[in-house]
Amino acid sequence: xxxxxxxxxxxxxxxxxxxxxxxxxxxxxxxxxxxxxxxAGGYTGLPALGGIYxxxxxxxxxxxxxxxxxxxQQLDQRFYLxxxxxxxxxxxxxxxxxxxxxxxxxxxxxxxxxxxxxxxLIECTLYIVIAVGTVPALYYFLHSLLSVYNSSVCKERExxxxxxxxxxxxxxxxxAEIAAGLLGCLAAMAYLLSAGLAVRDYRTGHxxxxxxxxx
Length: 215
Fold this sequence. Notes:
Layout: H1 2-9, H2 14-37, H3 42-49, H4 51-56, H5 66-109, H6 112-115, H7 118-149, H8 152-163, H9 175-214
Helix pairs in contact: 2-5, 2-9, 5-7, 5-8, 7-9
InterPro entries: Marvel (IPR008253), MARVEL_domain_protein_3 (IPR053077)
Subcellular location: Membrane
Organism: Copsychus sechellarum
């Protein structure tokens, strides 16, 4: 009916488009954070993946002796445990950022802002708080990762793998972690844009409701 058409119209507004972008950005951050965590270790994890990883990193790791293999496994596990809390925190934040715009889309479809215009001001405030909070969150994420990569565990692990000619175990940010940081910056800008659109829609709705009174 006409009510359903009015509800669907919200999905074509600027706020809804921004919220859909926010959902996609949060989903990508979640994926990148999970990649950053990785498996329990390169030495023990990569052969289990099979395929290109198995052959790229030397099949059964015949280059390692028994003692070196055990040391590599220990370093992998310690390195994994160092990164695990950071990755879990990032995934938790990304999950919340994924749910938040979904809830706002549902609120918009149900036309809550039309019946309760002050909701748009609440929405604007929430967006600004999240956008501002994203900055220290990104700093903590990248600073914590760099601390792990500068640790003695990572350095020893890197040297051990390089001594056998294995690549890809460098103590530096990899692509998924850099992508998570960039996506976080884009998300913060999207939140600020959504905050501005919420204020604009509040003013527009307020003016429309005042017109009958002026007549």
